[in-house]
Amino acid sequence: MFEIFGIPSAALFGQLLIGLINGSFYALLSLGLAVIFGMLNIINFSHGAQYMMGAFAAYLLLQYTGLGYWPALIIAPILVGITGIIVERLFLQWLYKLDHLYGLLLTFGLALIIEGLARTNFGSAGLPYTMPPSLRGGHNLGFMFLPNYRAWVIVASLVVCFSTWYVLERTRLGAYLRAATENPALVRAFGINVPRMITLTYAFGVALAAFAGVMAAPIYNVSPQMGSDLIIVVFAVVVIGGMGSILGAIITGFGLGVVEALTKVFFPEASNTVIFVIMAIVLLVRPAGLFGRRGS
Amino acid sequence: MKRVVDPLVGRLSAPRSQSETIVFIVMVAALIAAPFFAYPLFLMQAMCFALFACAFNLLIGYVGLLSLGHALYFGWASYLSAYAAKAWGMPPLVAILIGTGTGALCGIVAGMLAIRSKGIYFAMITLAFAQMMFFFAVQAKFTGGEDGIQAVPRGHLFGLIDLRNDDAMYVVVLAIFLIGFLLIYRIIHSPFGEVLKAIRENEPRAISLGYKTERYKLMAFVLSATLAGLAGATKAIVLQLASLTDVNWPMSGDVVLMTLVGGLGTIFGPVVGAFTILAMQYRLSSLGEWVLVIQGVIFVACVLLFRRGIVGELANILRIRL
After folding, report:
1. Nearest-CB residue to A99 (from B9, B68, B114)
2. Torsion angles phi and psi, residue A224, rounded to 5
């Protein structure tokens, strides 16, 4: 055991690990927001609620069908993705011609509905979700204790984030998507079904949120307000990173998680607000965000 | 082809008419008569929220800027006003002025940082700042944390009239509400207000005409924050309470909902919206969490079907300006 700046190493690395975990969720959620925004020009305020839906879907799958963590990790995002398709077809598609603000307002309303329904059915207190047996326990690395599940969350979210980045930036499908973002009319003229692509993009972004929700379920309690607490911080992350870039969203997410954790070690009173303070500074220095382009 | 209804874009002014004056007189008469029919405390609270919504509407309805963090100005004004009245023993009007000043100050700081961005960025930034100040309110000693500042003394107006009497308090709140309302009306119809509307319609064009639009937008933002502060400060004295509810994000959501229901960019809309939503919250309070669901449904319905809001739809049918 050794000390760094008067802090025991185990405590410091323990906080750093928590920071990376939070960062994984920031990254997954801001990635989903960025993907949706790129295609639909809508800021999905219900993203937090859909993250919460993912956690509840995992909980309900375990409760009523006995399906555990691993199936839930696949099924819950698909189920929530399907609700995303319904939401897009039923509501969002009518708003594309209007000011972007209406999309924000509509999804804000949806978030209230989802959170309200969750509260009426499950109460405000959290529900526990047991960790999968295969990921219990942990390893002693000498300078700190590394729980297996936490390591898994970081690795899994890194893999998902970078696969998303790869698909969008390096494949043919990604090229279609990016082209449709630039000029939907022209891409349509080439015979690509842009409206369907938009629907599926929304479903994918929402599914990412649900995936994050399932991963969060064993760490935090499954509770109706777990999403709304998180989403505002994620908004700040998005503002800091800038909307334009997928890679930017990932890096900013992880980076801010770590910064937040370090603040918790050295200056605990500011740990809740540090991300917002960073946002204020970034706005002064680079109004378009760290990775954003001016005018986007 | 069906025209896209979007009250934020290209709303042509109806020919000038007496309609606004007539409706204003009706509103004042109704507010004077109302305490004989309804619970005065509810009416006073509703007037505070109506002023809050009007202040918010000044920004979204006339400049086209959606602030998702107006609870910040409302809530912090409420805290400072309550603290001044309770801990410093300030008379009520001074306490309200201190609260209003707090709203203005917060508006200047947040506005300078947020005003350079537009659209949804602006909305996210204002929301994030409001959340930051919410966390400050949770941690600060003087706010009383979860308990808030309770049992705030209403005090005596000019040292003479005891405001513990609801009738006297009602008159004061009505006066504050009307002053705020008329001020907003004056702002909207001033040359300054015309520039704001020009910015809403076409900002690049306003810039090309030589207007320093960022200054105008900042000014509108600070005015809106100040008036939201006035509403919050008054509310703290009326209800004798300032709490975390006032600074938390659902409060910002409530004021958006009130304005949306009443009608964005209409003068009387926010007032109607505030009374409607607050009455609904009172009526349905026994339903508990379902209120959240119902509010969400109203949000969705307003955005999809009634983008003009109650007053906007009415004005459209009657072809007058409200």
Report:
1. B9
2. -60, -30
Q: Which residue on chain A is closest to B118 by alpha carbon?
A: A295
What domains sit in chain B, N to C, each tagged with a CATH number? 19-318 (1.10.3470)
Position A141 pLDDT exceeds 90: no
16-35 in B: which are within 8 Å (CB) of A?
none
Interface membership of B306 toward A (CB under 8 Å):
no
Interfacial B residues in 48-77 facing A (CB < 8 Å): 60, 64, 66, 68
B41-68 pLDDT tens trace: 899 999 999 999 999 999 999 998 999 9
Q: Which residues of A touch B136 (CB under 8 A)?
A: 273
Chain B residues whose beta carbon lies within 8 Å of the beta carbon of residue A243: 121
- Bridge partners of residue B161, in order along the sequence: B157
Place of tokens 């991963």: A215
- Asked if residue B12 has pLDDT above 50, the reply is no
Q: Is B99 in contact with B77 (CB distance < 8 Å)?
A: yes
Strand, coil or helix: A222: strand
Domains of chain A: 3-285 (1.10.3470)
Q: In sequence order, what are the residues at sequence separation of 6 or more whose Cβ sits closer than 8 angstroms to the Cβ of residue A237?
A: A26, A30, A249, A252, A253, A256, A275
